[in-house]
Amino acid sequence: MIPAPTARLRFREMADTDLDRMADLLGDPDVMRFYPRTRTRDEALAWIEWSQRSYAEHGYGLWIVETHAGEFVGDCGLTWQPVGGRQVLEVGYHTVPAMQGRGYASEAARTCVDLALGPVGETHVVAIINPANVPSRRVAERIGLRVEQETEVRGLPVVVYGRVTD
């Protein structure tokens, strides 16, 4: 179940042929500055494989995001993450530095949240964000998520933004 295209973006499943793009994205110190470290090429391949398993198991995962002209923007999608002893559906997003500041992350993330709370049938979606990651926090707020809690995930402090359907 791939999100419908937006005015400027399209989504597609990750493939092994995306390894160079994903290795560059996840290996970029700017993109990963709010993570404990950048990812290696092998870890980027594992990221792709994890997304592919998620498509098979859930029908969704992290997707490649491109402009309609085919320019690589980054990844965005829905994954299950542990928070406070339970699994929650998270919208996650990464944007290549050259495409940051154009509203692409908000556009892609909003589409994924709408998919989660609509056709997927979930009633709650979150974004798990490093407290210092102001740009990502702004994206969460722009797409209608609100702070639910401050906690730790995998031993790191996070702010959990969320939205619940009526």
Structure characterization notes:
The protein is an alpha+beta fold. 30% of the residues lie in helices and 34% in strands. It has 4 helices and 7 strands, in the order βααβββαβαββ. A 4-stranded antiparallel beta sheet has the order 1-2-3-4, with helices on both faces. The model has no long low-confidence stretch (mean pLDDT 95).
Number of helices: 4
Strand residues, percent: 25-35%
Low-confidence stretches: none
Largest sheet: 4 strands, antiparallel
Care to give the gist of this entry?
The chain is α+β, with helices and mostly antiparallel strands and 166 residues long. Helices cover 30% and strands 34% of the residues.
Write the topology of this structure.
Blueprint: E1 9-13, H1 19-26, H2 41-58, E2 62-67, E3 72-83, E4 86-95, H3 104-117, E5 124-129, H4 134-142, E6 146-153, E7 156-164
